[in-house]
Amino acid sequence: MATAVYADIAKQVISLLNAQATTTAYPASAIDIGDDRRNSGELKEAIIESDLEAQVAILETPGNGFRVNYLAVAVLGPITGNPQTAKLPERIGPISRVEIKVNTADTVWIAGEQCPLNEIQEMISNAAVFQGTAHDAAGSPLGGYYFIDEMSDHVTWTGNSIRVHYAAPPTADRVTPGLFSPDVYSPFLVARSLARLLKHGDNPAFMEWYSRQADQLMMLIRKGEIVLPNVEPLIRQAA
C-alpha cells in the first residue's frame, strides 16, 4: 500500500491557504505559508491529526479494503487461573480472524469457529457428553471453537493455543514527519487539515467549504471506498 506523502499534502494545504490569504485564485505558486498567523508546526499537527483520523476510520470499518494493511497478529496467553481464557489485545474495530492450534504438537493454525460459551465450557469440562476425546487432544473434533465476551474483552476457546488478527491502534510520526494513510485518501487529508487550521479572522465560508468536503470524504472512507474524488478548490475572484 502506497502511503500519502507529507510534503505533497503540505504543499496542497499551503497553496489553498495562500489562496485565502490573497485574492489570487487557486492554485497559488507560493511554497510557504503566506499568513504569519500560522507556522509550520501548526501545519504539521493539522496534517498528522488528519492522518490519524483517517487511520481510525479505516480500522473501524471492517469493509474497508485497506484495513488488512493495519492488521497485527498476537498469540494470547491465558489469564491466571483459567488456561482456556485470554485477554484480547488493545485494538480498534472487531477482531478480524481467530486461529487455534488444537494440540500442542500441531504445527498448523486452523480457523476458529464461533460457539456459545456454555457449549465451550461443556466441551472443556465434560468431553464425554459430546462423545469425543479431550478438546486439546490430537485430532480432537472438540478443538477449534471460541467465544468472545465483549463485556470483559476476553476470549475462551477449545484446543491448545489461540492467536488473533486485529487492527492495531494507529501510530504517529511527528519527527520525520511521516503519514500512514493510503495515498488515495490524500484528498481527505488536505480538506481536513485546512478545516483544522481555521483561526479567528479567517473567512468562515472558505474554511467551511473544505470542512464540508472533508466530512463527505470521511463518509466515503467509512463506506469502504478505496478511491476518493479530488478536493474542489474554492475559486475567489479579485474584489
Features:
239 residues; alpha+beta; 2 domains; 5-stranded mixed sheet; 5 helices; elongated
Tell me about this structure.
It is a single chain. This protein has 239 residues and is an alpha+beta fold. It has two domains: 6-65 and 182-222, no CATH class; 73-167, no CATH class. Helix content is 31%, strand content 16%. The chain contains five helices and nine strands; from the N terminus they run ααββββββαβββαα. It has helices spanning 6-21, 40-59, 117-125, 186-196, 204-222, and strands at residues 71-76, 78-79, 82-87, 97-101, 110-111, 113-114, 145-149, 154-157, 161-167. The strands form two sheets. Strands 2-3-8-7-6 form a five-stranded mixed β-sheet, with no helix packed on it. Strands 1-9-4-5 form a four-stranded antiparallel β-sheet, with no helix packed on it. Strand 6 (113-114), helix 3 (117-125) and strand 7 form a beta-alpha-beta unit. Helix 1 packs across helix 4, helix 2 (40-59) crosses helix 4 and helix 4 (186-196) packs antiparallel against helix 5. The chain is elongated. Residues 22-31 have low confidence and may be disordered.
SSE order and pairing:
Layout: H1 6-21, H2 40-59, E1 71-76, E2 78-79, E3 82-87, E4 97-101, E5 110-111, E6 113-114, H3 117-125, E7 145-149, E8 154-157, E9 161-167, H4 186-196, H5 204-222
Parallel strand pairs: 6-7
Antiparallel strand pairs: 1-9, 2-3, 3-8, 4-5, 4-9, 7-8
Strand order of the largest sheet: 2-3-8-7-6
Query: How many helices does DSSP assign?
Result: 5
State the major sheet: 5 strands, mixed
Nearest-integer average pLDDT: 88
Q: What characteristic shape results from the CA principal axes?
A: elongated
In total, the number of domains comes to 2
**What is the string of SSEs from the N terminus onward?**
HHEEEEEEHEEEHH
What is the straight-line distance between the termini? Answer: 44 Å
Given helix and strand content, the structural type is alpha+beta
| Total beta strand runs | 9
Report the β-strand fraction as a percent range: 15-25%
Q: Compute the CA-based radius of gyration.
A: 25 Å
Helix share bin: 25-40%
Uncertain parts: 22-31
